[in-house]
Amino acid sequence: MKNFAVGPLAVVAFSLFVAGCATKPPPAPPPAAPVAQPAPPPAPSIAPGSAEDLKVNVGDTVHFEYNLYTVLDQDKATLQRQSAWLAKYPNIKVTVEGHADERGTREYNIALGAKRANAVKEYLVSLGVSAARVDTVSYGKERPICAESTEACWAQNRRGVTIIASGANS
Predict the structure, then answer these.
(1) Are 131 and 118 in contact (CB under 8 A)?
(2) Is 58:81 a contact under the CB 8 Å cutoff?
(3) Is 59 within 8 Å of 100 (Cβ atoms)?
(4) What is the pLDDT of residue 168?
(5) Residue 18: per-residue pLDDT
(6) pTM reported for the whole predicted model
(7) Which residues, in sequence order, are CB contacts of 123 under 8 Å at separation 6+?
């Protein structure tokens, strides 16, 4: 038998042959067209005649100056909207909460909150809302919405808030 010596040139040629026969990976498919995602569910709508309707669409809060209980001119529009809303929903009864800032004694602020709640009630009654549909309560300084001891915070706490007591839609 004869020994065949494989020369370096034969090894290189064989390598090129094998490399040339190797299959190339198929080209990547074009990106798929984006699939339309379903729209997120719509935010739940606000039920007409509900507490959320009063708060969001009408306005449930008016503010007062320091140590005063006179309804401010800029808040009269809110109370006019409340009056119109109450006329639209005659079965609804409301309670007006009177609030004060932290300054002053508890007793003083309870009395001031009561005057503020009554001022809101009287304004609503002057617009045609039956007094029998509006109750009042004073929380004085007991339920602040802002706890900082700053004028901006105190101004937020000097308020009258109209809430639905009964008869609201869900």
Answers:
(1) no
(2) yes
(3) no
(4) 80
(5) 52
(6) 0.73
(7) 71, 76, 79
Among 28, 7, 93, CA closest to 54: 93
Instruction: For 24-70, write each residue's pLDDT tens digit.
Output: 555 655 554 444 445 455 446 899 999 999 999 999 999 999 999 99
Q: Are 150 and 66 in contact (CB under 8 A)?
A: no
136: three-class secondary structure by DSSP: strand
Q: At what angle do helices 73-88 and 106-126 cross, to 10 degrees?
A: 60
**Nearest to residue 111, comparing CAs of 71, 147, 139?**
139
The residue assigned the tokens 């004073």 is 138
Q: Are 94 and 163 in contact (CB under 8 A)?
A: yes
Structure tokens at 148: 């900082």
Strand partners, 62: 160
Residue 70 DSSP code: P
Q: Give the span between the Cα atoms of 153 and 151, in whole angstroms.
A: 5
Strands of the sheet with 134-140, listed across from one edge: 61-63, 159-166, 93-99, 134-140
Q: How far apart are CA 53 and CA 162, in angstroms?
A: 12
Phi and psi (nearest 5°) for 136? -130, 155
Q: Return the structure tokens found at 10.
A: 């034969």
